[in-house]
Amino acid sequence: MSTVSWESIDDAPLPEAPEAAAAPDEVIRTDVAIIGSGMGGGTMAYALKDSGAKVLVIERGHRLPAEPQNSDLDEVYLKGRYKNADTWYNGRTGAAFKPGVYYWVGGNTKVYGACLPRFRASDFEETRHEDGTSPAWPFSYDDLEPYYTRAERLFQVRGQIGEDPTEPLHSEAYPYPALDHEPTVQDLADSLRRQGLHPFRMANGLDADTPEKRALCATSDGAPNEAGLKSDAERIAIDPALESGATLMTDTKVVRLVPGPDGRTIVAALAERGDRIIRIEADTFILAAGAVNSAALLLRSATREHPRGLANSSGLVGRNYMVHNSTFFIGINPFKVNRTLWQKTLGLNDWYEAGPTNRYPLGNLQMLGKLRASMLKMARSWAPTWLLKAMSDRSIDIYLTTEDLPRRSNGVTAADGKIHVWWEPNNLEPHKELVRRVSRAIRKAGYPVIFTERMGIETNSHQCGTAVAGHDPRTSVLTPDCRAHDLDNLWVVDSSFFPSSAALNPALTIAANALRVADKILAEGSAPGRTRSADSPVNNNR
Predict the structure, then answer these.
(1) Cα 452 from chain centroid?
(2) Residue 256 belongs to what H/E stretch?
(3) d(Cα 509, Cα 119) in Å, to the nearest integer?
(4) Could you read off the pLDDT of 12-44 as tens digits, one per residue?
(5) What is the phi/psi pair of residue 523, to 5°?
(6) pTM summary value
(7) Which residues contact 262 (CB under 8 A, 6 or more apart)?
(8) For residue 9, is it left (φ>0), alpha (ψ between -120 and 50) or beta?
(9) Residue 112 C-alpha from the chain's centroid
(10) Binning pLDDT at 50, 70 and 90, where does residue 532 land?
(11) Mean per-residue pLDDT over the chain, rounded
(12) At what angle are helices 183-194 and 428-444 packed, to 10 degrees?
């Protein structure tokens, strides 16, 4: 397959607008249309549920069933039972890959590990890294702090202030106590502490405070949780919003946003549902389809008047894609079986920020949910299962993350109905140093055999940066309040708005920001409690 260049995308002829080609099969009118039901869209629906506005959530997937296969590792990992994303393409090589995104009600939170940390205060400030500068955000940690507190209450976060020296100021304690380590992880924490490090119990949205619950959650990092013990966006945000009168439209893919004659407002979203085209009209549009898909939708919505796509006068829609430098790290003690059920309780941020022993930030260590043979088999299909089981039975499993920096040359394009992701990692030397330091510490802790693998373009659950927020419309896509500079009634509340990626899981920051933006929308009356007439019937999946 031939590769596609940025230039060929920019110069490609515009597709014929669907509304010009055929009349829609159905017209639906609402006050607020939210595109995407994951952490950003779900939290926004929750925040607007009592506003008096008619809220419609549009999701391209449907409800993920609670079924025994949720915890069947062969079904989840080897058969890919819940992977339902379309194929994406490496823009530089043309190679096809299956991305780490999921189209279900609740989005990626249906399979995430529910690790819900706050970004550090320094993540909102301009920070010098070995390979360049991480830009400041257009608002501060202090601005977001009250919304972090609200998001922690909403998503039932378990944590403990005071264990991690980099933990920023909290105006309130965590709503639930931190999950304690199981014996093997506690032994690791004790060893790290003896080495002069500061392991802590990670902030987590998993109801697993008893052995019985932990057994029900043992496979829930990277897989659904049949018991409903995970704080995912469907359970925590979407379902309460529906109970308050919001509407959910599933199996519906928005393919285009339609601007009005004034060029300053979106008047409709065109969506495909099976073989039907549906026109969804609203006063307010909120885009939360994920950093790649949100950018692709804006680009695909190009018109003669907006040849580079909507909200794209800056030329930055789709640019500055970030996804973290990440490494899977496995330490093995051949003589010690690890019987941990829920392993994702320990974190380490000693080298997260620059300090006496590291001139530049290195990143974060967090435990993974306990790896099993089926998970390793997915990556090493040639290896015999008995060997992979012997390894995973005796391993501790870690995820290492270092910030990658925004680069205009890293990004997303949409052409010929396909998504192309352009990503070349940067800031790699600090990541290599993080791997070296963790390797030394884990060997000292009694795990002499180390395996590591750095993640590639297909590992993109932490994607961000494709519609960056900022004060200047020449250098950003969104205002500090995440409204498009170019459009008066379009907000973007997934991680597209991130000016930098930090080096931590983005989910809680997405939720906190959605609550912040919802307050701005409500304060200015952009989500009015009025609905234009002649509503068409909508599938209300409750």
Answers:
(1) 23
(2) strand 253-259
(3) 7
(4) 444 444 444 468 999 999 999 999 999 999 999
(5) -65, -35
(6) 0.94
(7) none
(8) alpha
(9) 9
(10) very low
(11) 92
(12) 110
